[in-house]
Amino acid sequence: MQNRGRTKRERENHKLFSLIKTCNYIHDKPTNHSTSCLSVMFICVCVCVCVFCFCRRIDYKLKRQDSTKTLLIKSEQLLRIEDHDFAMRPGFGGKHTHTHTHTHTHCVHLCSHTDEDFTMTLYLRHYWKDERLSFPSRNNQSRTFDSRLVKKIWVPDVFFVHSKRSFIHDTTMENIMLRVYPDGNILYSVRVTVTALCSMDFSSFPLDTQNCSLELESYAYNENDLMLYWKNGNDSLRTDEIVLSQFFIKHFHASNGLAFYSSTGWYNRLFINFILRRHIFFFMLQTYFPTMLMVVLSWVSFWIDRRAVPARVSLGITTVLTMSTIITGVSSSMPQVSYVKAVDIYLWTSFLFVFLSVIEYAAVNYCTTLEEMRKMKRGKVSTDDTWGLFLQAMAFDGCFHDDEIELTTFPRMAPTLTTDPLTSSAQSPDIRPIEGTRLHRQRSLRENVDLLVSNSYMIDSYSRLAFPMSYLLFNIIYWSLYS
To answer: Is the entire prediction scored with pTM above 0.90?
Structure first.
């Protein structure tokens, strides 16, 4: 091939040199002035023609080596962009333009419950037909362009409804692709990141499920000019494996509808719907388990001696302050909503149990003090005797029990056997035991209160069973309702 190329060049150079010699020979002949001028003009024309032919052959060879120069016209001339007004939609004045949409969700970066929004990166692709961009092609191959040509033609003016922030990626160039087919079909693809509003319901937080949607709509063209469709229904939504820190995505599905504006009419709208389920494990470690431990810790005071005032009071105050700290921390990380959340119900109910344990000891202490005051007023037992009996009762289980100390006066002794049984029997009335059931008189409310006051240790005994059973019942109801 190289030898052939050299041979052709040598032939062309030989022709050029022979032409120049001929011109010189003509010029050397004795002629008049007009003949010499014509000969010079002829020589110049011949030289120009030879140079043009030579350059054209070289340019043709370079075009064969570079495939980007196979077209003799520019892309704008091929698509006849200057011949049409692309400020108007395709088929203006006729039926509405059909635009089919396909999305590929690359990732969902963040779903914030404090700001009530989510951030998503996706590849948005639109398909439509614009016969003004059709071009002849022998092999029916499409032409692909970047963002520089997109600005010169018509594209759907789709925007994201309820969007807070959005942008098209531009590293290293704007991530926009335009593919034009010979029959006028167009594929327009763009990589965009959008942060959109998601109206969340926190009534079941943190055991909640949120329904969020990304909505697409044409800004200028209503349903009479532009109709948006999903290209393949639910198959139009493609997603990569998405992993979020606080949520996992249960379901993705596509839908469409109409939106009405009083000033401009009905607009076609596309929806990308997805269901988010919150991970509960984080909140179990940070909120629920510490709360349960504080409630159980408050029950320890029921087994501490009621006379140990500093121990029981300090334990109750510590658990109350800890519960207040947990409630404050959870509330600070939540949006300020005007309704009660599930976590609020659990925290405040647990706080109530802790608070009631402190109140329980206050009741025990008050009843004990009231009982001692009554006994001191009666003056039935001296202080030394009371202290000795108290130490005797404490020796058994470490707790002070009033039923082990008999503070009433001893009953009168029955008559001894020294007396005459016949005389005593004659003097005493004939009392016979009556066979049958015993008759129990029902105590009144005042008597029950007096009995509880006189036996204040029973309050702790009942609380040891009542508080755990009540809290267990509350947990069963709570987790069965919200799980």
So the answer is: no
